[in-house]
Design goal:
The structure is a single chain. The protein is mainly beta. It contains 2 helices and 13 strands; from the N terminus they run E-H-E-E-E-E-E-E-E-E-E-E-E-E-H. The strands form 3 sheets. Strands 2, 3, 4, 8, 12 and 13 form a 6-stranded antiparallel beta sheet that branches. Strands 1, 7, 9, 10 and 11 form a 5-stranded mixed beta sheet that branches.
């Protein structure tokens, strides 16, 4: 999972941006485990291009049943119990103080893989008081439909405020699975656009302090 703040060129003060850049590794183009992201910002939208580096499909035998698995460097996967366990990617975008955004997305350059075995199902969220060895891998019959799962290629959270920063998390699902046909579709690139809108903003950043919040200053100092 990539948890970096991508900075708008029109928001935040220079000194705060430099500190955040040092803390979060901000850049207009960067890479993480298994994927790269290009980011740009103009008067109308924030643009993100997610590009996969490549994957490998393997097989695993569990309790006598063979499943296909996706070998992807990113460690974050979907957690809907009984449905295919699919990797997804993520980035956090720094927003302006008081604008609204609407997400649009488009996938391109996909490859369809006809699998010999069903994809490994998720066991759902496993809590600390549970023994993973006692939770079986079971395919939910409701997942075996002629449709793509998870469905939408991207979504984003409502804008949030983290001390001095207003942002939104963007989640991208380049791996799509049709369980009825046992086909895995992998998008090599997904373009996400956060369109800026002149509507009432959610969670606007009302405070425009010239100084950094005391609580965040301690965090910044810890990495200097």
């Amino acid at each position: 999972m990539l948890f970096l703040f991508l900075k708008s060129t029109t928001c935040m003060k220079k000194n705060l941006f430099l500190l955040l850049a040092f803390l979060f590794g901000i850049s207009a183009a960067y890479s993480s485990d298994g994927y790269e992201v290009n980011f740009s910002d103009d008067a109308n939208a924030y643009q993100l291009e997610f590009m996969l580096d490549g994957i490998t499909i393997s097989e695993i035998v569990i309790d006598g049943q063979t499943f296909a698995t996706i070998d992807f460097p990113g460690s974050v996967v979907t957690k809907k119990a009984g449905f295919a366990e699919l990797p997804y990617v993520h980035a956090a975008v720094m927003l302006e103080a008081d604008n609204s955004v609407k997400l649009q997305f488009e996938g391109s350059n996909y490859i369809d893989y006809q699998l010999e075995h069903p994809l490994l199902p998720s066991r759902g969220v496993i809590y600390r008081d549970q023994d993973p060895a006692t939770i079986p891998y079971v395919i939910d019959p409701k997942s075996v439909i002629n449709n793509w799962y998870p469905g939408d290629l991207a979504n984003n959270t409502e804008p949030y405020i983290m001390r001095d920063v207003r942002g939104t998390n963007v989640y991208v699902y380049p791996f799509q699975y049709n369980a009825a046909k046992n086909v895995l579709r992998v998008y090599q690139s997904v373009n996400v656009s956060l369109q800026k809108e002149n509507t009432a903003p959610v969670n606007p950043l009302l405070s425009h302090s010239n100084s950094i919040a005391y609580e965040m200053d301690a965090i910044y100092a810890s990495v200097s």
